[in-house]
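Need residues for this backbone.
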């Protein structure tokens, strides 16, 4: 056996925490058999994310879409919401993401798993680079070893962007409906334009069709290109924690999930503010919600700048940043745990 192939054999018990659940470091020929796991685990991830994160998200959206005079800050927004609408007010608009995030996280994390394997097998593996032939891989596998194919951080980042674009087709209408429900401030349903997610969907579709439901789709696509930083940093942090600490794999997943989500929000938050302004902009015509103000993305961005300057792009950042760690730490720890628990 050649020296190159010898170098590709590792102890079967050794693994990298952030790659283990994704099947990296295992023979490429068996990877396609595990694609379903990412989609199933993503459902559980979505439930965990919503349970922890939705109240923070409600505060974030309200701060992003209101005049500065309405709320003094995140705490004031929280207190006003609970005082006027009760704790249930923090979970307004929760039904779309409860259903949506289950399927969105399933699609995002399932497609992320698929794209990671696709990039690994076609661009980064030793066999794809001609360093190790498929026959040599089989020879190593039959001897009880593993091929140390690892997707680099750049590969994880690229896979993240690809997954972000994929999930945007599902996320755009879900986030659109959620945002419109979250900015209804009346505690009485009779005083609201939309009585719930189904009513909101039905009314928008009746007047504006599919295009109305996908209002803000381009802003959603732009926002999710920042998944580059989320999944690239998730891999880097996981690698660091696995090599520099004695943490258990679930603990690594927890901390890497929370910290990488905060990296994502630091880089992407201004684009999310613009997205929320577009998604809560009146659609006009027969809806009776007012006149449309932002026909284009740059119109919303300019409006924020003119009214609040640079600070406007960071309004609502504190609850978002605070939410990012626990919600995504729990979600990714759940995802990775279910991935490990599912049969091959």
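Answer:
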């Amino acid at each position: 056996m050649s020296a190159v192939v010898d170098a590709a054999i590792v102890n079967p018990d050794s693994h990298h925490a952030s790659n283990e659940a994704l099947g990296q470091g295992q023979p490429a020929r068996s990877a396609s058999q595990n694609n379903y796991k990412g989609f199933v685990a993503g459902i559980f991830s979505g439930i965990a994310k919503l349970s922890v994160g939705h109240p923070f998200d409600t505060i974030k959206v309200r701060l992003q879409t209101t005049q500065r005079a309405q709320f003094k800050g995140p705490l004031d927004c929280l207190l006003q919401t609970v005082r006027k609408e009760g704790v249930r007010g923090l979970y307004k608009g929760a039904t779309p993401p409860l259903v949506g995030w289950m399927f969105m996280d399933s699609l995002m994390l399932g497609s992320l798993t698929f794209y990671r394997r696709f990039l690994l097998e076609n661009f980064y593996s030793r066999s794809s680079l001609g360093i190790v032939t498929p026959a040599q891989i089989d020879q190593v596998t039959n001897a009880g070893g593993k091929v140390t194919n690892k997707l680099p951080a750049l590969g994880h980042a690229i896979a993240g962007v690809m997954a972000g674009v994929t999930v945007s087709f599902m996320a755009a209408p879900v986030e659109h409906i959620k945002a419109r429900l979250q900015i209804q401030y009346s505690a009485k349903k009779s005083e609201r334009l939309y009585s719930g997610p189904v009513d909101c969907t039905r009314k928008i579709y009746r007047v504006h069709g599919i295009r109305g439901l996908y209002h803000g789709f381009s802003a959603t696509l732009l926002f999710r290109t920042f998944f580059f930083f989320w999944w690239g940093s998730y891999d880097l942090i996981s690698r660091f924690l696995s090599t520099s600490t004695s943490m258990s794999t679930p603990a690594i997943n927890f901390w890497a999930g929370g910290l990488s989500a905060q990296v994502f929000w630091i880089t992407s938050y201004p684009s999310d503010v613009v997205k929320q302004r577009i998604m809560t902009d009146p659609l006009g015509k027969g809806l009776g919600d007012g006149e449309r103000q932002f026909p284009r993305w740059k119109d919303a961005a300019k409006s924020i700048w003119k009214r609040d300057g640079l600070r406007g792009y960071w309004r609502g950042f504190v609850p978002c940043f605070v939410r990012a760690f626990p919600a995504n730490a729990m979600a990714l720890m759940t995802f990775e745990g279910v991935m490990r628990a599912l049969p091959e």
